[in-house]
Every structure is written in C-alpha cells, then in structure tokens.
Specification:
- Helices cover 63% and strands 0% of the residues.
- It contains 3 helices and no strands.
- The longest helix is centred in the middle third of the chain and has 22 residues.
C-alpha cells in the first residue's frame, strides 16, 4: 500500500474517531468509532507498515498480564448489605 494511501486512511480514521466521540447520538458515535477501528486495522494488516506494526506490538506487550494462580478475592461481608439472604 502506498504511503499516501496509508496517510489518507489514517487521517480518515482519526476524523471518524474524533467525530464519534463528540457525536451526541450514542449509536452513530459507536458506529463511527467502529469504522475508525476498521480503517486502522486495514492499514495495519494490509499495508504492512513496519513502523505501525512495531507500535502495535509495543502497545500489546504493555497490556497488563492476567495473574495465574492468584486467589479470587471474595466479596466482603458488609453489615449494610442491600441484598436479603434467603
């Protein structure tokens, strides 16, 4: 994919993302954000831009890891619980 196509798609995706965040209608805003994500994925997977792929890899590696063998914290017994035990 040529560099100018990448720039056009990324700028269109950025415009759609910002437009979706500021849209008062939640459904249309979500649709615009989904289209922006789809454009970003097209650029990332079809364009084979090493810089963008490296950036996505760094973001993925910085995500918090799920803890293994970590006990699940139970809900504390509160004295003012709204639920009625049966």
């Amino acid at each position: 994919m040529p560099w100018w196509t990448t720039l056009v798609l990324l700028s269109l995706g950025t415009y759609l993302w910002l437009s979706g965040r500021s849209n008062p209608d939640d459904v249309i805003g979500l649709l615009e954000q989904m289209l922006a994500i789809a454009l970003g994925l097209v650029v990332l997977f079809v364009g084979h831009n090493i810089l963008l792929e490296g950036l996505a890899l760094m973001v993925a590696l910085r995500l918090p890891a799920a803890r293994r063998n970590h006990p699940v914290m139970e809900r504390p017994k509160a004295g003012k619980d709204v639920l009625i035990p049966f």
